[in-house]
Task: structure prediction
Amino acid sequence: MNDPLPPELLDHLVLADGSRWVIAAGDEEAASIVSRLADAMQLRVKSPSASPPPARLGTNWTGAALAPRRGKARRLLVLVDAHEPESSPATRHAPLHFEDDVPVVCVLASFPHGDGRYVQLMELSSILARDAQNRGGVLLHGALAEKDGIGVILAAPGGTGKTTASDRLPAPWRSLCDDTTLVVRDSQGNHWAHPWPTWSRFLWGEPGGTWDVQNAVPLKGIFFLSQAVEDRAESVGPGHAVTLLVECAKQASQLMTRGLSREEARALHLERFGNLCALARAVPAHVLHISLTGAFWQEIEGTLEGSQQD
Result:
């Protein structure tokens, strides 16, 4: 992992929990994959000796900027093996828990068809999300929206309105992503939300897209969408919220257990459940009954104002 390729092929990812990744390619085909990952996530290219900038963080309720703690960067080396079966998990070399001083080696299969790039990108992003989970985070199937530096997640199963709801949000609301959000927890126990790529947009020859993954916002509300005639936000307790979050996390984290033993997969599931319980206790959750034409965002704004006053 010591400078496997020229410096211009090293990409940096910084998250709001203080974790940092240096991602490098070990061969020409891997360089193409890492480059596509960096484009999709809007990663910054740096030389090995340069320190990456911190994650661009929003502000908390008091308006004070929160900076991530510093630490050694994780190192991810990506390789492509033309003889690797397509059914093999790319993460077979990655441990269940990562160590700062031990490089993570990911060997990807070389796919002859166009959808292979989607699988490769999913495998790499699963490694990054799994490390965030080790630190108290979780990957959720939900859109991320932001207003005045505050983030909320609009959670729902696929095809039930996340993208449509995101597209309907008026300014000054901003949709940061419409499908998957990475939630991380900093050293003070605060939860931050990072927009995550919609990898399905890379299927069937589609052009994909770009997401400003390092643009983290403080997470102040989770809203589970439910189609209705009238717009209404209904508060749910931590216990109910956990049951809803479990399904959201399951949908977003399906690849994380590939290559793990049954015992390792069980440990990963228990770790994720613990993180979801902590998230449900810390961040208010609501069922957002949403109509086809109503101003549902006003319900969100009302609940956020109530939480701020509390």
